[in-house]
Amino acid sequence: MLDPPTHAEQEYLETIFWLGEAGLPVTASNVARARRLAPPTVHEMLVRLERDGYIVRDADKAIDFTAVGAEQAAAQVRRHRLAERFLTDVLGMPWDEVHEEAGRLEYAMSPQLEQRMLAAVGDATTCPHGHPFSAGPRVEGVPLADVELGARVEVVRFENEAEDVLGYLKTTGLEPGLTGTVVDVGDVIVVADDEGGRHDVTASVAETISVLADPSPPARVALPAQLVLGAQRYGR
Fold it and tell me: Does pLDDT of 136 surpass 90?
């Protein structure tokens, strides 16, 4: 039986999970980009994770979870997203301020506390930024930046959860579940919502906003560089 992962190992398992969930290549370079760390530092941790039985790497250096690693990562991500939802819905924290706070809370969460928090958030199945608690298939959107003028959209989730980016998104008024029409495209994308509000977002940040659109552009994974627009680590 494997020893429980260390705090540092858990953080890396989360990053690897997030990259895979976003459909990005799970490579050492993308892990380094997401965590804002130098490649040698990341390489050292990946060697540890492989040695400890949480990941495997193929001849092309692509990273994949072992069964135990996948279970650990999914559980850690679930606790993180549940903590975000609890902080917003129960404690009233603004959704653009909970990512880092949840990152601290998730490591202190016992199974008993997790069950009580699940009960407290009721029917919620996603974090406030639209990411599902449970690992597995999720609603696949397209980047808002790709949507054509006049299309109807529904915001599904924010792919970049760096708090400085979330803070910017908060000022736009966009949030998961919002529906509206794209009324301007270019360096700034403008969505007019169904309540008469107007939401302006830069095209670079619109790359990281997943929406359902009608008509819909072809499906595309947001660029890795766009997932780390924020100055802080993770970007997810």
Answer: no
Report the predicted TM-score, pTM, of the whole model to 2 decimal places: 0.91
Read off the pLDDT of residues 38-84 as tens digits, 9 standing for 90 and up. Answer: 999 999 999 999 999 999 998 888 999 999 999 999 999 999 999 99
Structure confidence by residue, pLDDT tens digits, 36-49: 899 999 999 999 99
- 215: cis peptide before it, omega within 30°? yes
* Three-state secondary structure readout of the chain: CCCCCCHHHHHHHHHHHHHHHCCCCCCHHHHHHHHCCCHHHHHHHHHHHHHCCCEEECCCCCEEECHHHHHHHHHHHHHHHHHHHHHHHCCCCCHHHHHHHHHHHHHHCCHHHHHHHHHHCCCCCECCCCCECCCCCCCCCEEHHHCCCCCEEEEEEECCCCHHHHHHHHHHCCCCCCEEEEEECCCEEEEEECCCCEEEEEHHHHCCEEEEEECCCCCCCCCHHHHHCCCCCCCC
